[in-house]
Write a structure and sequence with these properties.
Length: about 260
C-alpha cells in the first residue's frame, strides 16, 4: 500500500484526455486522491494503490500515450503534495537544493509548507531570509498554529524587542517551535540569553531562525547546518540586504556574540 505522484505534460490537449487516464487508473484499481494543474501545460495526480505492481503496469501504458509526456512518477515528496494543493511548484534554488523561494502573495503556500515541516518530529533547523515587514514572523506563528504546535520566542522584534534568558515549565518541551531573530541574538550581550540559545540548539526540536546569515556570524554555526532556508520577498526581484536591518537594530561590526 503506497501513495504515488504522477505528473505529465500535455502534448495535445484534446477533449477526453483526462478521462482516458482516470479510466485507466480505475481499471487498474488505483485510486485518485487529488488532481490539479501544476503549470499551464502540466497536470499532477496523487494516487494510491494497494498493489504497487499495478503502478508499474500503469507507468508502462501511459509512457506509450502520444498525447502526453510523463515528467514525474515517484513516491510523493513534500513539494509534490503542495503542488497538488496549490496548483504550482515552490521555486527552489538550482544550486542550493534546500533553499526555497516565496513572495508575499504566496504567504498561504509558505504557511502550508512550514506547517508540514513543523509536523515532523525531531531536530530541524530552518532559516528564513527577508526584508522587514515582509511577513516572516507572522508566517512562522501561523504555521505553528496550523501544525498545532506551541511557539516560543527566544528573541524577536515582532511587537517589541524581546530577549529571553530563561524558560519555564513546558516551554522546554521538544514539541515546541523555538523562534529567534538572528540579528537580535547576534547583538545581545546577555550571556544568559546566549546560553539559552546554545541549550536550545542542542535540543531535538524544531528551531526557526530569522536572518540566519547574521545568526551564524561570530558563532560556531554555519549556513550549511540549516536543513532548510526559506527566502521571502515582496516581489521576485527584491534584493535581501542586511544593511538597512543592521541600521534599524543600531548595530556595528564591533558587536559580537561574546563567545556564542
Amino acid at each position: 500500500m503506497s501513495d504515488w505522484y504522477f505528473e505529465y505534460e500535455i502534448q495535445v490537449n484534446r477533449p477526453g484526455l483526462l478521462g482516458d487516464i482516470a479510466s485507466l487508473l480505475g481499471m487498474l484499481r488505483v485510486n485518485i486522491i487529488s488532481i490539479n494543474g501544476v503549470d499551464e501545460d502540466r497536470r499532477g495526480m496523487l494516487v494510491h494503490t494497494d498493489n504497487d505492481e499495478t503502478i508499474e503496469r500503469f507507468r508502462t501504458i501511459v509512457s506509450t500515450m502520444e498525447h502526453i509526456n510523463v515528467t514525474k512518477f515517484r513516491q510523493p515528496k513534500l513539494r509534490d503534495r503542495l503542488a497538488i494543493r496549490h496548483g504550482h511548484y515552490i521555486p527552489r534554488d538550482a544550486d542550493e537544493k534546500n533553499t526555497f523561494r516565496f513572495v508575499r502573495d504566496e504567504l498561504g503556500i509558505l504557511v502550508d509548507f512550514m506547517a508540514e515541516l513543523f509536523k515532523k518530529e525531531g531536530h530541524k533547523l530552518i532559516g528564513i531570509r527577508g526584508m522587514p515587514r515582509v511577513g516572516k514572523t507572522e508566517s512562522i506563528v501561523a504555521a505553528s498554529v496550523c501544525a498545532n504546535k506551541k511557539w516560543i520566542f527566544l528573541s524577536s522584534t515582532m511587537i517589541k524587542q524581546t530577549v529571553r534568558n530563561k524558560l519555564a515549565g513546558d516551554e522546554f518541551s521538544d514539541n515546541n517551535i523555538f523562534i529567534l531573530d538572528g540579528i537580535v541574538t547576534r547583538r545581545s550581550s546577555d550571556e544568559r540569553h546566549l546560553q539559552l540559545v546554545r541549550e536550545m540548539m542542542n535540543m531535538p526540536s524544531i528551531k526557526v531562525v530569522e536572518h540566519p546569515d547574521m545568526f551564524v556570524q561570530h558563532s560556531d554555526y554555519r549556513i550549511e547546518d540549516f536543513d532548510y532556508i526559506i527566502e521571502l520577498r515582496h516581489h521576485p526581484d527584491e534584493e535581501i540586504t542586511y544593511e538597512i536591518m543592521e541600521k534599524n537594530h543600531m548595530m556595528s561590526e564591533s558587536n559580537s556574540f561574546g563567545g556564542f
